Amino acid sequence: MKPDIVARYIIMAPNANAGTGESDTREVLGTSYAAPAFAGAAAQVRQYFEEGWFPCGSKGCGTIIKPSGSLVKALLMNSGQDLIGVQDVITNKNVIESLKPYANSQGIGLVKLASTLPLLDEDNANKKICNGLAQNNVL
């Protein structure tokens, strides 16, 4: 299945024609914008563990660990949320249609870290994280 997971890729960017009476910003999209958004999400997952946020959800309250690449990817994949529609790139219009979970148009879904990383006073989910194959690395 490809893509594995998707990242939000519509951003507001500076508008080069702003001096002509147009808006200072414009909405742009594309994979060139999705890649840094996804890389930023991966960096946030890594920082979350390196600053000791797990399992209590606030900085410094948990064990400081160096997360493996597998753990970072697993958490990103676990955060996937179903998309509600697809975009017709040719007409640049949103086409609302039913998407099936794990379909080739969305993979696992849209990265949403708040759904997978515990934050103090934000969720009540209990999570078990395994950093590597050894059982003694379960946090």
List the defining traits of the structure above.
139 residues, alpha+beta, two-stranded antiparallel ribbon, two-stranded antiparallel sheet, 4 strands, 22% helix, 10% strand
If you had to describe this structure to a student in words, what would you say it looks like?
By secondary structure, the chain is α+β, with helices and mostly antiparallel strands. It has one domain. 22% of the residues lie in helices and 10% in strands. The strands form 2 sheets. The protein has a two-stranded antiparallel ribbon. It has a two-stranded antiparallel sheet with strand order 3-4. A hairpin with a 4-residue loop joins strand 3 and strand 4. The protein is globular, with a radius of gyration of 18 Å. The chain starts with 10 loop residues before the first strand and ends in a 44-residue tail after the last strand.
- Cα radius of gyration in angstroms: 18 Å
Q: Please tally the helical runs, counting DSSP H or I stretches of 4 or more residues.
A: 2
Question: What summary fits the major beta sheet?
Answer: 2 strands, antiparallel
Q: Average the pLDDT over all residues and give the rounded result.
A: 76
Q: State the share of residues found in helices, binned by percent.
A: 10-25%
> Which class do the helix and strand fractions yield?
alpha+beta
**Regarding quaternary structure, how should these chains be classified?**
single chain
| Run of helices and strands | EEHHEE
